[in-house]
Amino acid sequence: DTGVSQNPRHKITKRGQNVTFRCDPISEHNRLYWYRQTLGQGPEFLTYFQNEAQLEKSRLLSDRFSAERPKGSFSTLEIQRTEQGDSAMYLCASSQQDSPIPEAFFGQGTRLTVV
Amino acid sequence: AQKITQTQPGMFVQEKEAVTLDCTYDTSDPSYGLFWYKQPSSGEMIFLIYQGSYDQQNATEGRYSLNFQKARKSANLVISASQLGDSAMYFCAMRGEDDKIIFGKGTRLHILP
Questions:
Q1: A97 and B108 in contact by Cβ < 8 A?
Q2: Considering only CB atoms, which chain A residues are within 8 Å of B50?
Q3: What is the per-residue pLDDT for B1?
Q4: DSSP string of A62-112, one letter each residue
Q5: pLDDT at A1
């Protein structure tokens, strides 16, 4: 297993378009997290999953954001009708719930630029 | 609600000196965990150290130690003998009983030669 994988690494889109990002977690991890990070700031929590169940979605997220983890493996994050304010790095992380040290392992992120 | 506060936006430290990065947290969960991550300019998030709320001793990992003061709700990171490669953003994070993980705003550490 090579760790958490995110695709694409970079995405440039026009305002108003829809975009979808994919995250492949470490295979045995049952927890999967999505974060948004802007320059010089900490990762902002978006949502997280236990297997295929979405446990919480940030109240800061508009209805334009949706995430799925259909079979408890990979996850997708979709942003509809993108706005310039959506430009950010989108980070995915996974962890194993019952691990003695339940650290979250991060992917390299998807950098979104909305023009 | 859970909250992580890092009050030092930036710090400058001379190489080989020790440095303490501050972190305070707020939670009503009896069981929780605290993490520190390093993010160099390359952007990757590197896990450094973990402290469980019921751990009796402060966590240590090589040059990193976590000064955990439960009553004060603080979890400061101490880096001993700082190196130029320690220059990066450092984030404190907390995992609650629901396994949700939240991060602070970070501290940018600059190590001066």
A1: no
A2: 101-103
A3: 83
A4: -TTEEEE-TTSS-EEEEE-S--GGG-EEEEEEEE-TT-SS-PPEE---EEE
A5: 56
Can you read off the two tokens belonging to residue A114? 């909305």
**B104/A35 touch (CB, cutoff 8 Å), yes or no:** no
Q: Comparing C-alpha atoms, which of A101, A78, A98 is closest to residue A31?
A: A98
Percent of chain A with pLDDT over 70: 99
DSSP class of residue B33 equals: E
pLDDT value at residue A34: 97
Percent pLDDT > 70 in chain B is 100
Contact A42 B95 (CB under 8 A): no
Among left, alpha and beta (phi > 0; psi -120 to 50; other), residue A14 is: beta
**Residue A25 tokens, joined:** 């977690």
Tens of pLDDT, residues A60-112: 788 999 999 998 899 999 999 999 999 999 999 999 988 888 899 999 999 99
| Out of B35, B99, B104, closest to residue A97 by CB | B99
B45 and A106 within 8 Å at the Cβ level: the answer is yes
Put simply, whether B99 touches A (Cβ < 8 Å) is yes
Contact A43 B103 (CB under 8 A): yes
